[in-house]
Prior knowledge:
By secondary structure, the chain is α/β, with parallel strands linked by helices.
Amino acid sequence: QYFTAVTGATPDERTLARKADIVGESLRRLTAADADVLRPVLIGDRHHDVDGGAEQGVPVIFVTWGFSEPHEADGAFAVAHDNTELRSLLGV
């Protein structure tokens, strides 16, 4: 009930393996479901998220409580160090 689309790498990691492809497929699914994709944002914790979002023109909010190293946030739109900062960045 909380998600319009859930997209990840395919089991063979060939059809959808690169993060940019996964982000693109997510946008396609959201568009097909009539979701508003005019201002998407990706929340991620790895450099793959930042790179994939950038390739698709989707800004990334980098969260520091995942599996990343600090330098992986380079290129992110914003960085959130906790849930309060993330909620503030999202305007909720």
